[in-house]
Design brief:
Length: 71
Amino acid sequence: CEPIAELADLPIADEVRRLLPAATCERLGVLAVRLSGTTLTLACVDPTDAAAIAEVSRLTGYRVRAVLARY
């Protein structure tokens, strides 16, 4: 089971919010929630979507840790 991000209770830093355009987040079903070193934690509708994870990694230059998004 993937870790879960409780989005309603999760503060997201402005620098993390700016990593991905809103249109990209909506299209991929993702939300960048935390940056720790070179790892970006990504809350996802489908954390097994390898194509979405790879695209976010390519766009941001960070290694991506995908977690299940829960609202």
